[in-house]
């Protein structure tokens, strides 16, 4: 059992807790001040997902050699309070799925990134689809602010519209629908709840790339989307996480 306190804890309270849970006496120590964001930035290595190379500013010196290989796309994403640096299996799975679809010749005209976090998926689309309409939305305004900053630093200002919205509930999203490609890297519950809205906002024969789900949740989510009018296209498991691609019938 462990706990963190921002002030020195009451030792009597700790003794009571230890007795209540039949635990050993607590040892109290002071943690040093750590800039966790800076620490994470230093320790995160670049991520490669097919043509996509996601890096932090501390690895910027590696980018010229990567781009010199040709057919590569470098995206600068800093570790922040928003989700999606590319290192997590869910984001990586979505990037890999999009890379494979692009290789098959898929060129969607309209793309939505629902629950965008850092907007890395929207930017991965914008980087190779110069003429596409792309919307990135998140329920958290902080994430939207981070997304807008990332769009700017990657030279994609004006290419991606970043919005605060729950699911598809925004006038600009509704006006742009239906979409040819939809990313949704969120969680099992919201993914299942959004299945009918996904069908309503995805063009016939359009594709959805879904993640944020555990391998053990993949079948339940697939079933929900099949019921909503999709057919499975592919699935990739990365560790305990899964990424799904489904097509609107």
Structure in words:
With 249 residues, the protein is of the alpha/beta class. Helix content is 36%, strand content 26%. It is built from nine helices and ten strands. The protein has helices spanning 11-20, 36-43, 63-67, 89-103, 120-126, 141-153, 171-176, 188-201, 218-228; strands at 47-49, 52-55, 73-76, 110-114, 133-138, 160-164, 179-185, 202-214, 230-238, 241-248. A hairpin with a 2-residue loop joins β1 (47-49) and β2. The chain is globular and about 65 Å long. The N and C termini lie far apart (51 Å). The mean pLDDT is 89.
* 3D shape: globular
Order of helices and strands: HHEEHEHEHEHEHEHEHEE
Distance between the termini: 51 Å
Kindly provide the radius of gyration, computed on alpha-carbon positions and rounded to a whole number of angstroms.
21 Å
Helix % is 25-40%
Strand content: 25-35%
The biggest beta sheet is recorded as: 7 strands, mixed
Strand order in the sheet with the most strands: 6-5-4-7-8-10-9
Give a concise summary.
With 249 residues, the chain is an alpha/beta fold. It has 9 helices and 10 strands. Helix 8 packs parallel to helix 9.
Could you give the topology of this structure?
Elements lengths: L10 H10 L15 H8 L3 E3 L2 E4 L7 H5 L5 E4 L12 H15 L6 E5 L5 H7 L6 E6 L2 H13 L6 E5 L6 H6 L2 E7 L2 H14 E13 L3 H11 L1 E9 L2 E8 L1
Helix pairs in contact: 4-5, 8-9
């Amino acid at each position: 059992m462990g706990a963190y306190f921002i002030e020195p804890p009451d030792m009597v309270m700790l003794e009571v807790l230890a007795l209540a849970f039949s635990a050993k006496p607590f040892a109290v120590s002071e943690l040093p001040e750590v800039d966790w964001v800076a620490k994470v930035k230093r320790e995160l290595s670049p991520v490669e997902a097919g043509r996509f190379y996601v890096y932090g500013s501390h690895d910027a010196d590696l980018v010229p050699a990567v781009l010199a290989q040709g057919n590569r796309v470098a995206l600068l994403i800093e570790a922040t309070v928003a989700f999606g640096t590319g290192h997590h299996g869910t984001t990586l799975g979505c990037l890999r799925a999009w890379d494979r679809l692009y290789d098959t010749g898929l060129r969607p005209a309209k793309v939505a990134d629902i629950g965008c976090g850092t907007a890395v998926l929207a930017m991965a689309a914008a980087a190779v689809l110069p003429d596409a309409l792309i919307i990135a939305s998140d329920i958290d305004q902080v994430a939207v602010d981070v997304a807008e900053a990332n769009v700017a630093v990657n030279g994609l200002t004006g290419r991606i519209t970043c919005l605060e919205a729950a699911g598809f509930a925004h006038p600009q999203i509704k006006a742009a629908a239906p979409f040819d490609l939809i990313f949704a890297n969120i969680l099992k519950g919201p993914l299942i709840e959004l299945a009918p809205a996904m069908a309503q906002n995805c063009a016939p024969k359009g594709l959805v790339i879904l993640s944020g789900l555990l391998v053990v949740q993949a079948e339940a989510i697939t079933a929900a989307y099949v019921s909503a009018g999709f057919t499975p296209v592919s699935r990739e498991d990365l560790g305990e996480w899964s990424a799904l691609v489904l097509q609107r019938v």
